[in-house]
Amino acid sequence: MNDIIPAILPRDYDDLKNKIALVRGVVNIVQIDICDGSFVPSQSWPYTHGNIEADPHFNKILNETEGLPFWEDLDFELDLMVSDSVKNFDIYTKLGAKRIVFHLCAVGNLQEFKDFLEGIDIYVRETIEIGVSIDVNENLENLFPLINNIDFVQCMGIDREGFQGEDFDEKVIDNVKALREKFPDLIISIDGGVDFDSAPQLLGVGASRLVIGSAIFNSTDIIGTIEEFRNIN
Asked: How far is CA 90 from CA 51, 95, 97, 186, 208, in A?
C-alpha cells in the first residue's frame, strides 16, 4: 500500500481545521504548507496576518494552551516554504510536528546548513524527522553532503512552489531515478503535481511517499481518492 500524505495549504486556521477534518481517521499524517510571502509569493497560515506573531492560534500553540487541529488523532509534517526556517527552527518545532521539511534553496550557505543539522539537539532528532526539499531544476549534488544528516528527501514535482494545482514537471522523474540509484535506502517524497497520471510513474521509479494536495481536496470523494492512490500498482 502506497504512503499517501494529504497536503494542506491553509488560508487560515479555520481552513486548516476544516481540511484536516476531511481526512481525520483516514490518514496518519498530513502535510501543512507554511508559506511566508517572502521565500514564495503566496502566504498561508500562520502568515495570514503577515506576521506569525500576529496570529492568535499560533501564539496559543506556542504557549501550549492550544494544539494543532485534531493533534490527538494524527501527526503533522511542516513544509517550511519560508525564508527563516533555520533562524526560527526552535519556534517551528513547538507546533508539534513529527516531520519538518527545509527547502534547500532557502537555507543559505550549504556548509552552514550542514553544521546546523549536525548541531540539532539530540532530543529533537529523536522526536522529529528532518527532511530537505529540492527544486525540480536544482542540482541534485547539492543534497549529497547532507544525506547522512537527514531522514528523507522531498523532490518537488512543480516549478512554482507555494501553490496547488500546478502542472507536473516530468524532470522530477529523472531526479527520483538518480537519487534512488545513488541512495537505495533513501526515503523519497514527491510534492507537487501528483495525480493519477503522474503517481504511477513516480512510484515506478522509486518514490517512497506521495504528497498530494489538489487531487485529494478537489475530489468529490476524498476518502475514495486517497484509497485509490494507496492502491496504485
From this structure: 17, 10, 12, 26, 28
Do 96 and 43 meet the contact criterion of CB atoms below 8 Å apart?
A: no
Per-residue pLDDT tens for 30-58? Answer: 999 999 988 888 999 999 877 777 888 99
CA 90, 94, 98, 99 dihedral sign is negative
> Are 159 and 129 in contact, with CB atoms under 8 Å apart?
no
Give yes or no for a contact between 85 and 102, defined as CB atoms under 8 angstroms apart: yes
Name the class of domain 3-230: alpha beta
pTM: 0.94
Q: With helix as H, strand as E and coil as C, how does the chain read?
A: CCEEEEEECCCCHHHHHHHHHHHECCECEEEEEEEECCCCCCECCCCCCCCHHHCHHHHHHHCCCCCCCCCCCCEEEEEEECCCCCCCHHHHHCCCCCEEEEEHHHCCCHHHHHHHHHCCCHHHHHHCEEEEEECCCCCHHHCHHHHHHCCEEEEECCCCCCCCCCCCCCHHHHHHHHHHHHCCCCCEEEECCCCCCHHHHHHHCCCCEEEECHHHHCCCCHHHHHHHHHCCC
- Angstrom distance (rounded) from CA 155 to CA 188: 7
- pLDDT digit string, tens, across residues 179-193: 999 999 999 999 999
Pairing of strands 209-212, 188-191: parallel
